[in-house]
Amino acid sequence: MTTSPIPRHSVVIVGGGQAGLSLSHGLKAQGIEHVVFEKHRALHAWSTQRWDNFCLVTPNWQCALPGHPYAGDDPHGFMKKPQIIEYLAAFKASVDAPLREGVAVQQVRPAPGGFLVRSSAGECFAEQVVVASGGYHTPIVPRLAERLPASIRQIHSADYRNADQLPPGKVLVVGSGQSGAQIAEDLHLAGRQVVLAVGDAPRCARFYRGRDVVDWLADMQYYDMPVTQHPLREGVRDNTNHYVTGRDGGRDIDLRRFALEGMDLFGVLQGLDADGDTLRFAPRLAEVLDQADRTYNGINASIDKFIAERGIDAPEGSVYEPVWQPAAERATLSLTESGITAVVWCIGFAPDFGWLDAPVFNGRGHPVHNRGVTAVPGLYFLGLPWLHTWGSGRFSGVARDAAYLAERIAQRRSALGAGGPAREKPTELQLQAALA
After folding, report:
1. In a 3-state reduction of DSSP, which class is residue 249?
2. Could you tell me what percentage of the chain is helix, strand and coil, using 3-state DSSP and rounding each to the nearest 5?
3. What CATH number does residue 123 fall under?
4. Which of 240, 353, 392, 419 could cross-link with 201 by S-S, CB 3.0 to 4.6 Å?
5. Structural domain total, the chain
Protein backbone atom coordinates (compact mmCIF):
# COMPACT_ATOMS: atom_id res chain seq x y z
CA MET A 1 0.00 0.00 0.00
CA THR A 2 1.18 3.50 -0.81
CA THR A 3 2.22 5.32 2.36
CA SER A 4 3.35 8.75 1.11
CA PRO A 5 0.62 11.39 0.68
CA ILE A 6 -1.14 11.16 -2.66
CA PRO A 7 -0.79 14.34 -4.79
CA ARG A 8 -4.10 16.12 -5.35
CA HIS A 9 -5.23 18.23 -8.29
CA SER A 10 -8.38 20.16 -8.99
CA VAL A 11 -8.34 18.98 -12.63
CA VAL A 12 -6.31 16.41 -14.52
CA ILE A 13 -6.29 16.79 -18.30
CA VAL A 14 -5.31 13.65 -20.20
CA GLY A 15 -3.69 14.62 -23.49
CA GLY A 16 -1.46 17.52 -24.51
CA GLY A 17 -2.73 18.11 -28.04
CA GLN A 18 -4.58 21.21 -29.20
CA ALA A 19 -7.63 20.15 -27.15
CA GLY A 20 -5.79 19.68 -23.87
CA LEU A 21 -3.82 22.90 -24.26
CA SER A 22 -6.98 24.78 -25.22
CA LEU A 23 -8.65 23.66 -22.01
CA SER A 24 -5.55 24.58 -20.03
CA HIS A 25 -5.89 28.08 -21.51
CA GLY A 26 -9.49 28.22 -20.27
CA LEU A 27 -8.74 26.87 -16.81
CA LYS A 28 -5.88 29.32 -16.32
CA ALA A 29 -8.30 32.13 -17.17
CA GLN A 30 -10.66 30.74 -14.49
CA GLY A 31 -7.83 30.48 -11.97
CA ILE A 32 -8.35 26.73 -11.58
CA GLU A 33 -5.35 24.60 -10.65
CA HIS A 34 -4.75 21.71 -13.05
CA VAL A 35 -2.14 19.49 -14.67
CA VAL A 36 -1.84 18.16 -18.24
CA PHE A 37 -0.49 14.63 -18.69
CA GLU A 38 0.90 13.84 -22.15
CA LYS A 39 2.47 10.43 -22.79
CA HIS A 40 4.64 11.71 -25.65
CA ARG A 41 5.41 15.36 -26.28
CA ALA A 42 2.74 18.01 -26.54
CA LEU A 43 1.22 18.24 -30.04
CA HIS A 44 3.43 15.34 -31.15
CA ALA A 45 0.95 13.91 -33.69
CA TRP A 46 1.39 16.89 -35.99
CA SER A 47 5.07 16.18 -36.44
CA THR A 48 5.08 12.38 -36.14
CA GLN A 49 1.91 11.31 -38.00
CA ARG A 50 1.90 13.59 -41.05
CA TRP A 51 3.66 13.10 -44.37
CA ASP A 52 6.23 15.54 -45.71
CA ASN A 53 3.88 17.30 -48.16
CA PHE A 54 0.99 17.45 -45.69
CA CYS A 55 -0.97 20.69 -45.61
CA LEU A 56 -4.24 21.86 -44.12
CA VAL A 57 -7.44 21.16 -46.04
CA THR A 58 -9.20 24.07 -44.35
CA PRO A 59 -8.10 27.67 -44.96
CA ASN A 60 -5.73 29.30 -42.52
CA TRP A 61 -8.35 31.70 -41.19
CA GLN A 62 -10.04 28.73 -39.54
CA CYS A 63 -7.00 28.27 -37.29
CA ALA A 64 -8.53 29.86 -34.22
CA LEU A 65 -7.03 28.24 -31.16
CA PRO A 66 -7.83 30.20 -27.96
CA GLY A 67 -5.81 33.38 -27.72
CA HIS A 68 -3.89 32.37 -30.81
CA PRO A 69 -5.73 33.08 -34.08
CA TYR A 70 -3.90 32.82 -37.38
CA ALA A 71 -1.98 36.06 -37.87
CA GLY A 72 -0.15 35.38 -41.13
CA ASP A 73 -0.49 37.11 -44.46
CA ASP A 74 -2.38 34.31 -46.26
CA PRO A 75 -5.69 33.73 -44.44
CA HIS A 76 -7.20 31.96 -47.44
CA GLY A 77 -4.15 29.77 -48.03
CA PHE A 78 -3.31 26.40 -46.52
CA MET A 79 -0.41 26.04 -44.13
CA LYS A 80 2.11 23.32 -44.92
CA LYS A 81 3.50 20.96 -42.32
CA PRO A 82 6.44 23.18 -41.18
CA GLN A 83 4.14 26.18 -40.85
CA ILE A 84 1.58 24.17 -38.88
CA ILE A 85 4.27 22.98 -36.47
CA GLU A 86 5.48 26.57 -36.06
CA TYR A 87 1.92 27.80 -35.42
CA LEU A 88 1.35 25.11 -32.80
CA ALA A 89 4.71 25.70 -31.10
CA ALA A 90 3.76 29.35 -30.67
CA PHE A 91 0.37 28.31 -29.28
CA LYS A 92 2.02 25.98 -26.78
CA ALA A 93 4.35 28.77 -25.65
CA SER A 94 1.47 31.23 -25.29
CA VAL A 95 -0.57 28.86 -23.13
CA ASP A 96 2.39 27.83 -20.94
CA ALA A 97 0.36 24.94 -19.55
CA PRO A 98 1.34 22.99 -16.41
CA LEU A 99 2.43 20.19 -18.70
CA ARG A 100 3.88 16.82 -17.71
CA GLU A 101 5.32 15.32 -20.89
CA GLY A 102 6.33 11.67 -21.08
CA VAL A 103 3.69 10.69 -18.53
CA ALA A 104 1.33 7.94 -19.71
CA VAL A 105 -2.01 7.70 -17.94
CA GLN A 106 -2.67 4.04 -17.23
CA GLN A 107 -5.95 4.16 -15.32
CA VAL A 108 -8.62 6.63 -14.30
CA ARG A 109 -11.42 5.47 -12.05
CA PRO A 110 -13.96 7.10 -9.76
CA ALA A 111 -13.02 7.49 -6.10
CA PRO A 112 -14.62 9.29 -3.15
CA GLY A 113 -14.95 12.94 -4.15
CA GLY A 114 -13.33 12.56 -7.56
CA PHE A 115 -11.01 10.20 -9.40
CA LEU A 116 -7.86 8.20 -8.86
CA VAL A 117 -5.34 8.57 -11.67
CA ARG A 118 -2.58 6.02 -12.13
CA SER A 119 0.24 7.00 -14.47
CA SER A 120 3.80 6.12 -15.35
CA ALA A 121 4.78 8.85 -12.88
CA GLY A 122 2.73 7.43 -10.00
CA GLU A 123 -0.73 7.99 -8.55
CA CYS A 124 -2.67 11.17 -7.90
CA PHE A 125 -6.18 12.28 -7.04
CA ALA A 126 -8.25 14.61 -9.24
CA GLU A 127 -11.50 16.29 -8.35
CA GLN A 128 -12.35 16.40 -12.07
CA VAL A 129 -10.85 14.73 -15.17
CA VAL A 130 -10.97 15.76 -18.81
CA VAL A 131 -10.13 13.21 -21.51
CA ALA A 132 -8.52 15.26 -24.26
CA SER A 133 -6.54 12.49 -25.93
CA GLY A 134 -8.65 12.46 -29.09
CA GLY A 135 -10.21 9.45 -30.76
CA TYR A 136 -7.44 8.40 -33.13
CA HIS A 137 -5.29 6.05 -31.10
CA THR A 138 -4.70 2.70 -32.78
CA PRO A 139 -3.94 2.50 -36.52
CA ILE A 140 -6.39 0.15 -38.21
CA VAL A 141 -4.78 -2.59 -40.30
CA PRO A 142 -6.98 -5.52 -41.40
CA ARG A 143 -6.06 -9.08 -40.51
CA LEU A 144 -5.57 -9.94 -44.17
CA ALA A 145 -2.36 -7.88 -43.97
CA GLU A 146 -0.82 -10.78 -42.07
CA ARG A 147 -1.23 -12.99 -45.13
CA LEU A 148 0.33 -10.69 -47.71
CA PRO A 149 3.72 -11.84 -49.04
CA ALA A 150 6.65 -10.79 -46.88
CA SER A 151 8.19 -9.14 -49.93
CA ILE A 152 5.49 -6.46 -49.93
CA ARG A 153 6.27 -3.40 -47.82
CA GLN A 154 3.29 -2.42 -45.68
CA ILE A 155 2.83 0.82 -43.77
CA HIS A 156 -0.08 2.70 -42.24
CA SER A 157 -0.88 6.26 -43.22
CA ALA A 158 0.43 7.33 -39.79
CA ASP A 159 3.91 6.19 -40.87
CA TYR A 160 3.86 7.40 -44.48
CA ARG A 161 6.26 10.26 -45.17
CA ASN A 162 7.02 10.30 -48.90
CA ALA A 163 7.27 8.16 -52.02
CA ASP A 164 10.97 7.46 -51.51
CA GLN A 165 10.38 5.29 -48.44
CA LEU A 166 8.58 2.72 -50.60
CA PRO A 167 10.35 0.23 -52.90
CA PRO A 168 10.18 0.60 -56.70
CA GLY A 169 6.99 -0.75 -58.23
CA LYS A 170 3.28 -0.10 -57.94
CA VAL A 171 1.79 1.06 -54.66
CA LEU A 172 -1.62 -0.09 -53.44
CA VAL A 173 -3.34 2.61 -51.40
CA VAL A 174 -6.31 1.27 -49.45
CA GLY A 175 -8.94 3.86 -48.56
CA SER A 176 -9.99 7.16 -50.09
CA GLY A 177 -10.82 9.33 -47.11
CA GLN A 178 -8.81 12.50 -46.57
CA SER A 179 -5.54 10.69 -45.87
CA GLY A 180 -5.97 8.02 -48.53
CA ALA A 181 -6.92 10.44 -51.28
CA GLN A 182 -4.11 12.85 -50.43
CA ILE A 183 -1.47 10.12 -50.09
CA ALA A 184 -2.58 8.63 -53.40
CA GLU A 185 -2.22 12.11 -54.90
CA ASP A 186 1.20 12.55 -53.29
CA LEU A 187 2.43 9.29 -54.79
CA HIS A 188 0.81 10.08 -58.15
CA LEU A 189 2.49 13.48 -58.34
CA ALA A 190 5.80 11.84 -57.43
CA GLY A 191 5.49 9.72 -60.57
CA ARG A 192 4.58 6.47 -58.83
CA GLN A 193 2.09 4.01 -60.29
CA VAL A 194 -0.81 3.87 -57.86
CA VAL A 195 -3.58 1.32 -57.43
CA LEU A 196 -6.30 2.89 -55.27
CA ALA A 197 -8.91 0.81 -53.45
CA VAL A 198 -11.67 3.39 -53.27
CA GLY A 199 -13.87 3.57 -50.18
CA ASP A 200 -17.20 5.24 -49.49
CA ALA A 201 -15.80 8.66 -48.64
CA PRO A 202 -17.64 11.70 -50.03
CA ARG A 203 -15.94 14.62 -51.74
CA CYS A 204 -16.48 18.34 -52.06
CA ALA A 205 -15.29 21.19 -54.23
CA ARG A 206 -12.36 23.33 -53.14
CA PHE A 207 -13.66 26.49 -54.84
CA TYR A 208 -17.13 27.22 -56.15
CA ARG A 209 -18.71 30.35 -57.52
CA GLY A 210 -15.68 32.48 -56.83
CA ARG A 211 -14.89 31.43 -53.25
CA ASP A 212 -13.58 28.59 -51.16
CA VAL A 213 -16.45 26.25 -50.30
CA VAL A 214 -15.42 26.57 -46.63
CA ASP A 215 -16.10 30.32 -46.82
CA TRP A 216 -19.57 29.71 -48.22
CA LEU A 217 -20.38 27.08 -45.59
CA ALA A 218 -19.17 29.41 -42.84
CA ASP A 219 -21.53 32.12 -44.09
CA MET A 220 -24.28 29.54 -44.17
CA GLN A 221 -23.50 28.83 -40.47
CA TYR A 222 -22.92 25.15 -41.15
CA TYR A 223 -19.93 25.16 -38.82
CA ASP A 224 -22.09 26.53 -36.00
CA MET A 225 -24.66 23.72 -36.24
CA PRO A 226 -24.60 21.57 -33.08
CA VAL A 227 -24.70 17.82 -33.45
CA THR A 228 -28.16 17.83 -31.87
CA GLN A 229 -29.50 19.75 -34.88
CA HIS A 230 -27.71 17.76 -37.57
CA PRO A 231 -30.06 15.54 -39.62
CA LEU A 232 -27.99 12.48 -38.64
CA ARG A 233 -27.71 13.55 -34.98
CA GLU A 234 -24.88 11.55 -33.30
CA GLY A 235 -24.64 9.38 -36.41
CA VAL A 236 -22.67 12.14 -38.11
CA ARG A 237 -19.73 11.24 -35.85
CA ASP A 238 -19.32 8.04 -37.86
CA ASN A 239 -19.12 9.84 -41.20
CA THR A 240 -15.92 9.83 -43.21
CA ASN A 241 -14.49 13.26 -43.96
CA HIS A 242 -14.85 14.67 -47.47
CA TYR A 243 -11.71 14.46 -49.56
CA VAL A 244 -10.26 17.67 -50.94
CA THR A 245 -6.82 19.24 -50.73
CA GLY A 246 -5.09 22.49 -49.90
CA ARG A 247 -2.01 21.48 -51.85
CA ASP A 248 -0.55 24.02 -54.30
CA GLY A 249 -3.04 26.66 -53.19
CA GLY A 250 -5.99 24.29 -53.00
CA ARG A 251 -7.92 22.24 -55.54
CA ASP A 252 -10.43 19.43 -55.92
CA ILE A 253 -9.35 15.84 -55.65
CA ASP A 254 -11.02 14.14 -58.60
CA LEU A 255 -10.29 10.42 -58.61
CA ARG A 256 -11.76 10.14 -62.09
CA ARG A 257 -9.17 12.57 -63.41
CA PHE A 258 -6.45 10.59 -61.67
CA ALA A 259 -7.74 7.54 -63.54
CA LEU A 260 -7.40 9.41 -66.84
CA GLU A 261 -3.80 10.12 -65.85
CA GLY A 262 -3.01 6.49 -65.15
CA MET A 263 -4.10 5.75 -61.58
CA ASP A 264 -5.76 2.34 -61.36
CA LEU A 265 -9.05 2.47 -59.43
CA PHE A 266 -10.79 -0.47 -57.78
CA GLY A 267 -13.73 -0.81 -55.42
CA VAL A 268 -13.54 -1.44 -51.68
CA LEU A 269 -10.92 -4.04 -50.74
CA GLN A 270 -12.72 -7.08 -49.32
CA GLY A 271 -10.18 -9.83 -48.89
CA LEU A 272 -7.32 -12.01 -50.06
CA ASP A 273 -7.75 -15.43 -51.64
CA ALA A 274 -6.19 -18.55 -50.16
CA ASP A 275 -3.42 -18.35 -52.76
CA GLY A 276 -2.05 -15.30 -50.90
CA ASP A 277 -1.82 -13.42 -54.17
CA THR A 278 -5.30 -12.55 -55.40
CA LEU A 279 -6.95 -9.50 -53.87
CA ARG A 280 -10.73 -9.27 -53.93
CA PHE A 281 -12.69 -6.04 -54.29
CA ALA A 282 -16.36 -5.14 -54.09
CA PRO A 283 -17.50 -4.50 -57.68
CA ARG A 284 -18.95 -1.13 -56.70
CA LEU A 285 -16.41 1.35 -58.08
CA ALA A 286 -18.90 3.15 -60.32
CA GLU A 287 -21.39 3.32 -57.46
CA VAL A 288 -19.01 4.86 -54.93
CA LEU A 289 -17.66 7.37 -57.46
CA ASP A 290 -21.19 8.39 -58.37
CA GLN A 291 -22.14 8.78 -54.72
CA ALA A 292 -19.09 10.96 -54.05
CA ASP A 293 -20.09 13.14 -57.00
CA ARG A 294 -23.68 13.40 -55.75
CA THR A 295 -22.37 14.74 -52.45
CA TYR A 296 -20.09 17.16 -54.34
CA ASN A 297 -22.97 18.48 -56.43
CA GLY A 298 -25.33 18.50 -53.46
CA ILE A 299 -23.05 20.80 -51.45
CA ASN A 300 -22.71 23.09 -54.44
CA ALA A 301 -26.50 23.10 -54.89
CA SER A 302 -26.94 24.22 -51.27
CA ILE A 303 -24.55 27.07 -51.99
CA ASP A 304 -26.55 27.94 -55.13
CA LYS A 305 -29.70 28.13 -53.00
CA PHE A 306 -28.01 30.34 -50.40
CA ILE A 307 -26.76 32.72 -53.11
CA ALA A 308 -30.17 32.89 -54.79
CA GLU A 309 -32.10 33.50 -51.56
CA ARG A 310 -29.84 36.41 -50.62
CA GLY A 311 -29.35 37.86 -54.06
CA ILE A 312 -25.56 37.59 -53.80
CA ASP A 313 -23.57 38.62 -56.84
CA ALA A 314 -21.39 35.62 -57.69
CA PRO A 315 -20.12 33.82 -60.79
CA GLU A 316 -22.48 31.31 -62.40
CA GLY A 317 -22.86 27.89 -60.85
CA SER A 318 -22.16 24.56 -62.46
CA VAL A 319 -22.77 20.84 -62.08
CA TYR A 320 -19.88 18.39 -62.10
CA GLU A 321 -19.99 15.92 -64.99
CA PRO A 322 -17.84 12.77 -64.76
CA VAL A 323 -14.67 12.97 -66.83
CA TRP A 324 -14.12 9.20 -66.68
CA GLN A 325 -16.15 6.08 -66.16
CA PRO A 326 -14.83 2.58 -65.33
CA ALA A 327 -15.08 0.39 -68.42
CA ALA A 328 -16.06 -2.57 -66.28
CA GLU A 329 -16.18 -3.62 -62.65
CA ARG A 330 -13.14 -5.67 -61.61
CA ALA A 331 -13.39 -7.88 -58.56
CA THR A 332 -9.87 -9.38 -58.44
CA LEU A 333 -6.25 -8.32 -58.84
CA SER A 334 -3.08 -10.42 -58.72
CA LEU A 335 -0.34 -8.87 -56.63
CA THR A 336 2.33 -10.63 -58.68
CA GLU A 337 0.96 -9.82 -62.12
CA SER A 338 0.16 -6.22 -61.24
CA GLY A 339 3.64 -5.55 -59.87
CA ILE A 340 2.48 -4.22 -56.50
CA THR A 341 5.42 -3.97 -54.11
CA ALA A 342 3.95 -1.82 -51.33
CA VAL A 343 0.68 -1.19 -49.53
CA VAL A 344 -0.32 1.97 -47.64
CA TRP A 345 -3.25 1.33 -45.29
CA CYS A 346 -5.41 4.46 -45.06
CA ILE A 347 -8.47 3.12 -43.27
CA GLY A 348 -8.24 5.17 -40.14
CA PHE A 349 -7.73 4.68 -36.43
CA ALA A 350 -9.65 3.01 -33.62
CA PRO A 351 -10.21 4.68 -30.24
CA ASP A 352 -8.60 3.13 -27.18
CA PHE A 353 -10.07 4.21 -23.87
CA GLY A 354 -9.27 0.96 -22.08
CA TRP A 355 -7.53 2.92 -19.32
CA LEU A 356 -10.73 4.78 -18.40
CA ASP A 357 -12.66 2.71 -15.88
CA ALA A 358 -15.98 4.53 -15.85
CA PRO A 359 -19.49 3.70 -17.16
CA VAL A 360 -19.55 6.26 -19.96
CA PHE A 361 -19.28 4.11 -23.10
CA ASN A 362 -21.81 2.68 -25.52
CA GLY A 363 -21.78 -0.84 -26.96
CA ARG A 364 -19.23 0.18 -29.60
CA GLY A 365 -16.78 1.53 -27.04
CA HIS A 366 -17.47 5.16 -27.91
CA PRO A 367 -18.00 7.73 -25.14
CA VAL A 368 -21.52 8.92 -24.44
CA HIS A 369 -21.70 12.60 -23.59
CA ASN A 370 -23.60 15.83 -24.09
CA ARG A 371 -21.20 18.43 -25.43
CA GLY A 372 -18.37 16.62 -23.68
CA VAL A 373 -20.16 16.27 -20.34
CA THR A 374 -20.68 12.65 -19.28
CA ALA A 375 -23.15 11.11 -16.85
CA VAL A 376 -20.32 10.63 -14.35
CA PRO A 377 -20.04 13.92 -12.44
CA GLY A 378 -16.69 15.59 -13.01
CA LEU A 379 -15.70 13.50 -16.06
CA TYR A 380 -15.53 15.13 -19.49
CA PHE A 381 -14.32 14.60 -23.08
CA LEU A 382 -12.82 17.20 -25.38
CA GLY A 383 -11.43 17.26 -28.91
CA LEU A 384 -13.53 14.47 -30.43
CA PRO A 385 -15.03 14.84 -33.94
CA TRP A 386 -18.47 16.42 -33.71
CA LEU A 387 -18.24 16.61 -29.93
CA HIS A 388 -20.50 19.64 -30.38
CA THR A 389 -20.01 20.99 -33.92
CA TRP A 390 -18.11 20.13 -37.10
CA GLY A 391 -15.06 21.97 -35.80
CA SER A 392 -14.87 20.25 -32.42
CA GLY A 393 -11.93 18.10 -33.40
CA ARG A 394 -10.26 20.85 -35.43
CA PHE A 395 -8.44 24.13 -34.92
CA SER A 396 -11.64 25.99 -35.77
CA GLY A 397 -13.98 24.75 -33.07
CA VAL A 398 -12.00 23.38 -30.15
CA ALA A 399 -11.68 26.80 -28.49
CA ARG A 400 -15.46 27.10 -28.13
CA ASP A 401 -15.72 23.60 -26.67
CA ALA A 402 -12.81 24.17 -24.29
CA ALA A 403 -14.33 27.43 -23.02
CA TYR A 404 -17.64 25.66 -22.43
CA LEU A 405 -16.03 22.85 -20.41
CA ALA A 406 -13.88 25.29 -18.45
CA GLU A 407 -17.08 27.05 -17.42
CA ARG A 408 -18.76 23.76 -16.47
CA ILE A 409 -15.72 22.75 -14.43
CA ALA A 410 -15.77 26.11 -12.65
CA GLN A 411 -19.50 25.78 -11.95
CA ARG A 412 -19.04 22.35 -10.44
CA ARG A 413 -16.24 23.60 -8.20
CA SER A 414 -18.39 26.51 -7.12
CA ALA A 415 -21.34 24.23 -6.38
CA LEU A 416 -19.18 21.98 -4.23
CA GLY A 417 -17.44 24.88 -2.53
CA ALA A 418 -13.79 25.85 -2.89
CA GLY A 419 -12.07 22.48 -2.94
CA GLY A 420 -15.34 20.75 -2.07
CA PRO A 421 -17.15 20.52 1.28
CA ALA A 422 -15.81 18.14 3.90
CA ARG A 423 -18.18 15.35 2.89
CA GLU A 424 -16.88 15.60 -0.70
CA LYS A 425 -13.17 15.68 0.07
CA PRO A 426 -11.69 12.19 0.48
CA THR A 427 -9.39 11.61 3.39
CA GLU A 428 -5.87 10.34 2.86
CA LEU A 429 -6.93 7.08 4.43
CA GLN A 430 -9.80 6.69 1.94
CA LEU A 431 -7.46 7.28 -0.98
CA GLN A 432 -4.86 4.88 0.34
CA ALA A 433 -7.56 2.25 0.75
CA ALA A 434 -8.81 2.85 -2.79
CA LEU A 435 -5.30 2.30 -4.12
CA ALA A 436 -4.76 -0.88 -2.13
Report:
1. helix
2. 35, 20, 45
3. 3.50.50.60
4. 240
5. 2
As to burial, measured by CB atoms within 10 angstroms (0-12 exposed, 13-18 middle, 19+ buried), residue 153 is middle
Considering the entire predicted model, what is its pTM? 0.92
- 184 and 278 assigned to the same domain: yes
Pairing of strands 8-14, 34-38: parallel
**Distance separating alpha carbons of residues 137 and 351, to the nearest angstrom:** 5
DSSP structure string for 9-35:
EEEEEE--SHHHHHHHHHHHHHT--EE
**Cα 287 vs. chain centroid, distance in angstroms?**
26
Radius of gyration of the chain (CA): 24
- Report the alpha-carbon distance of residue 384 to residue 390 in Å, rounded: 10
Domain that holds residue 257: 139-345
In the Cβ-directed half-sphere of 76, how many Cα atoms lie within 13 Å?
A: 10
On whether residue 3 sits in a domain, the answer given is: no
Name 14's Cβ contacts closer than 8 Å, sequence gap at least 6.
Answer: 20, 37, 105, 108, 129, 130, 131, 132, 133
Least confident interval from 69-83, 149-163, 231-245, 287-301: 231-245
Torsion sign, CA atoms 326, 330, 331, 334: negative
Over range 407-412, report the average pLDDT: 96
Number of H helices, E strands in the chain: 10, 21
Closest by alpha carbon to 94, among 33, 5, 24? 24
